[in-house]
Amino acid sequence: xxxxxxxxxxxxxxxxxxxxxxxxxxxxxxxxxxxxxxxxxxxxxxxxxxxxxxxxxxxxxxxxxxxxxxxxxxxxxxxxxxxxxxxxxxxxxxxxxxxxxxxxxxxxxxxxxxxxxxxxxxxxxxxxxxxxxxxxxxxxxxxxxxxxxxxxxxxxxxxxxxxxxxxxxxxxxxxxxxxxxxxxxxxxxxxxxxxxxxxxxxxxxx
Length: 206
Ligand SMILES: Nc1nc2c(ncn2[C@@H]2O[C@H](COP(=O)(O)OP(=O)(O)OP(=O)(O)O)[C@@H](O)[C@H]2O)c(=O)[nH]1
Fold this sequence. Notes:
Layout: E1 9-16, H1 23-32, E2 45-54, E3 57-66, H2 73-80, E4 85-91, H3 95-99, H4 101-111, E5 117-123, H5 135-144, E6 148-151, H6 160-180, H7 185-192, H8 201-204
Parallel strand pairs: 1-3, 1-4, 4-5, 5-6
Antiparallel strand pairs: 2-3
The protein binds guanosine-5'-triphosphate.
């Protein structure tokens, strides 16, 4: 077991998207390596931690799993602001979950930090015969909205590790650049903006 202080950076990653798209399963797959049977709907928010290694440095990911149901929206919104990365999830076998993406982007616009790293994820890629959203449609949407894109399957562990590791890597790169940069008005803005700072262990300690 690593000790709590044994990490260089701490990043908050928040998953959002309609109920039932597989947010909880993605988090469980990555943090615990399992696909839980009979997963109930998330109530409010939940978080799990996983420490990974990026270029020889330990990076701690605090992964927040939010409830997709409308009635929890006011609770989940408060978590956007401190996110370093946001993963917007839809289900490739369920068109309405894709059609709701503009609403999720609206939420991000209203509540998240402008510099947040955004990923669009089409989950349940194993449901080949039930696919309703072609891959290129998801990819095109992501490009138009300044998001990175991946299709995943929490069930078959496809691209899940890749998703979180890419995020950890990107955030680490950004953090290293910030560490090198002298203190500027821009970095002050970032802190005032309420986002948890992408910076070294000293200021991000829990
Ligand atoms: N085939 C398939 N089913 C999946 C996958 N991921 C999740 N599911 C199923 O989809 C259902 C919903 O999964 P959850 O992870 O609870 O969805 P959620 O987005 O967290 O839902 P809320 O907590 O209500 O927001 C469950 O029945 C899962 O077994 C996947 O990759 N493939």
